[in-house]
Amino acid sequence: MKIKNVFAVFALSGVLLTTACSESEKYIVTKDENGKLIAQKIPANGVVEEVEEKVPTIAEFISVDKGFSTFTTALKAAELYNTLSEEGVYTIFAPINSAFENLPKGLQDEQLKPEDKEQLINILKYHIIPSKITKQDIIVAINEGRGSIPLRTLGGNLLTASLKGGSIFLIDENGNGGRLITTDVEASNGFINTIDKVMMPKK
């Protein structure tokens, strides 16, 4: 997964190197909002105006990582992509591409059809928690909850979180389990966790 490298795509500024064209002129090389290198002259007082770094939204994070291409396509088909682009507080459990590939044959394509949009919306909302929770929050709650805790999703359904061998597993309403892989990737509007299974709410 390349999720740890995504900040490099969105960084508005970052000091890469300092060069001296002469004794009196020095430049600092930074990146603009499109990632293009630009040379900025250092003022005589040596103080370079800093540009605030933009933290990407959840939607921006997943859209630049090819490992989430199927999830991103599904969010757009369900018209939920913009929700994860807006201000808010969310924690998502984003299935990687292989999670969709392991669905029963034909189910993935079937869910992306316009006539099955409502079903797709319900499935995707099942991967979104309308609050910020970290891995440590979940672990503490599991330990206090005698081995498992329920998590209420954006669609109102429940996921069950449990702990096994230091890893967090989510169990859907049909009894299927998925393991969290990467956790606590912070976006401007919440946290991203990756999961190796597609969670399915009861119909």
Can you describe this structure?
The chain is α+β, with helices and mostly antiparallel strands and 203 residues long. It has seven helices and eleven strands. The protein has helices at residues 7-10, 58-64, 69-77, 97-101, 107-111, 117-125, 135-144, and strands at residues 17-20, 26-31, 37-41, 90-95, 128-129, 148-152, 158-164, 167-171, 177-179, 185-187, 190-195. The strands form three sheets. The protein has a four-stranded mixed sheet. Strand 10 (185-187) and strand 11 form a beta hairpin. It is globular, with a radius of gyration of 21 Å.
Give me the secondary-structure topology:
Blueprint (H helix, E strand, L loop, with lengths): L6 H4 L6 E4 L5 E6 L5 E5 L16 H7 L4 H9 L12 E6 L1 H5 L5 H5 L5 H9 L2 E2 L5 H10 L3 E5 L5 E7 L2 E5 L5 E3 L5 E3 L2 E6 L8
Parallel strand pairs: 4-11
Antiparallel strand pairs: 1-2, 2-3, 4-5, 6-7, 7-8, 8-9, 10-11
Task: State the gist of this model.
The protein has seven helices and eleven strands.
